[in-house]
Amino acid sequence: MLRRTASLSPSIGKCSPLSPAGKAPTLSCLSSGSCSQERKATCAPNPCKHRHPFDLHHIGPSHDPSALDISQDDAAIRITNLNKWYGDFHVLRGIDLTVRQGERIVIAGPSGSGKSTLIRCINRLETHQKGQIVVDGIELTSDVKNIGKVRSEVGMCFQHFNLFPHMSILENCILAPMSVRGHSRKEAEEIALHFLEKVKIADQATKYPGQLSGGQQQRVAIARSLCMKPRAMLFDEPTSALDPETIKEVLDTMIALAEDGMTMICVTHEMGFARQVADRVIFMDKGVIVEENAPEAFFARPQHERTKLFLSQIFGH
Ligand SMILES: Nc1ncnc2c1ncn2[C@@H]1O[C@H](COP(=O)(O)OP(=O)(O)OP(=O)(O)O)[C@@H](O)[C@H]1O
Ligand SMILES: [Mg+2]
Q1: Based on the number of CB atoms within 10 Å of its own CB, is 202 exposed (0-12), middle (13-18) or buried (19 or more)?
Q2: CA contacts within 13 A on the Cβ side of 114
Q3: What pLDDT sits at residue 257?
Q4: Nearest CA among 241, 239, 268 for reference residue 251
Q5: Which of 113, 123, 125 should be mutated for ligand 1, with most atoms under 8 A from CB?
Q6: Which residues contact 203 (CB under 8 A, 6 or more apart)?
Q7: Angle, CA 35 vertex, CA 201 and CA 63 arms, to 5°
C-alpha cells in the first residue's frame, strides 16, 4: 500500500478536468465526469482492502503490485501500434501501451514529444489514423456510442481548467452526475459535497469559478471528475501552474486516488510523485515510447541516452 509521504518535488504542472487548450466545457463532454473534453476509462470492480475517504462509491480496484502479468482481459486500456498525424506531421509513431486495471502510469518526456496527444487520443479528444485503442473492452472508433461509453468512464484532468463560469462550484459538480448518471439533485449534491470536501474546497461551493484562485479551481475540477465516479483518470500536467502549497494538495489528492486503486495515467514532471505512486514510468520522445520501467529502475538505471539527458535536466545534474 502506498505511503502518503509529502516529500514531493515541486513541479511543473497544473490541473483541471477539462477541455483542451482552454476550450469551454460542453454538455457533450460531461459524460466524462469532469468537464468538456474529458472522458473516462475503465477499471473493473475489485475489492479494496480498505475504504479511503475518496471512496464514496468504491471507485476502483485495489492495487495489487504482485499482479504484474495480467491476462488481456484485465487491461483497462490497450493501445496497439497507435499512429497519429497532424497534417504531414507524424506525432505518434507506433505507440504500444497496455494499462492494467488499478495501474498507475506516469508519462514523462520533453516538450512536444506527444504526451498530451497520446492521452487525448484515449478519450478521443484527438482522433488517430492508424492502430487501435481499446478502453475497457471498447474500441475507440468513429462510433459515437462507443466514444460516449468511454467518456463516461474516464475522467480527465488537464492543464487548463474549464469550469462553467456561470455556474457555482456546486452546480459545476452536480451537472454531469444528474444529466449523465441520472442522480437526483439531492444525491448529486451529496456526492459533490463529499468530493469537494476531500479536495478541501467545500466551503467554496456556492461561489463561482471566477471567485476562486487558479489552484482552487483546479481542485474543483478534480472533484468534478470524481463526482462521476470514473473508473480511470487521465491527468495532463495537473500541477503545472500551481504554487508549491497547492501542488502538494493536488498531489496528495492524486496519491489518495492511487491508494484507492484508481487506474491512472498521469503526464507529469513531478518525479517525486512518480517515484512514490507510479507502477511504471514511461519516457516519450518524438512520438515514440523510448523507455519504460518501474520507477526505481527508471531513475536509477535509465537505459537510453535520451532518457539520461532528460533526467539530468530534470534533476539539474
Ligand atoms: N492541433 C495540433 N495541430 C498540429 N500540431 C499539433 C497539434 N497539437 C499538438 N501538435 C504538435 O504535436 C507535437 C506534440 O504535441 P503534444 O502537445 O502532444 O506534446 P507534449 O509532449 O504534450 O508537450 P508539452 O510537454 O509541451 O505539453 C508538438 O510538436 C505539437 O506542436
Ligand atoms: Mg502536453
Answers
A1: middle
A2: 25
A3: 84
A4: 239
A5: 113
A6: none
A7: 75
DSSP 134: E
Phi-psi category of 136—alpha, beta or left, where left has phi over 0 and alpha has psi -120 to 50? left
What radius of gyration, in Å, describes the C-alpha atoms of the chain?
18
Convert 92-102 to b/e letters by CB count within 10 Å (16 or more is b).
bbebebbbbbb
Pocket of ligand 1 (CB under 6 A): 86, 89, 91, 109, 111-117
Largest CA distance in the chain: 55
Distance from chain centroid for Cα 156: 5
* Sheet containing 104-108: order of strands: 154-157, 232-236, 263-267, 104-108, 280-285, 288-293
Ligand nearest to the Cα of 236, by number: 2
Do 28 and 21 meet the contact criterion of CB atoms below 8 Å apart?
no
285 Cα–ligand 2 center, Å: 12
Probe target for ligand 1 pocket from 14, 23, 86, with the most ligand atoms within 8 Å of CB: 86
For residue 3 the three cell numbers come to 505511503
Question: What averages of pLDDT result for each successive group of 10 residues across the chain (317 residues)?
Answer: 32 31 37 35 32 35 35 81 98 98 97 97 96 95 92 86 92 94 96 91 96 86 90 91 80 86 94 95 98 97 96 82
For residue 312, CA distances in Å to 183, 283, 299, 300, 306 come to: 49, 14, 10, 12, 10
CA 267 to ligand 1: nearest atom: 22
Per-residue confidence (pLDDT) for residue 5, from 0 to 100: 30
3-state secondary structure of 234: strand
Q: Return the amino acid letter for 172.
A: N
- Give the whole-angstrom CA distance, residue 275 versus residue 69: 21
- DSSP line for 61-89: PPP-TT--S--GGGEEEEEEEEEEEETTE
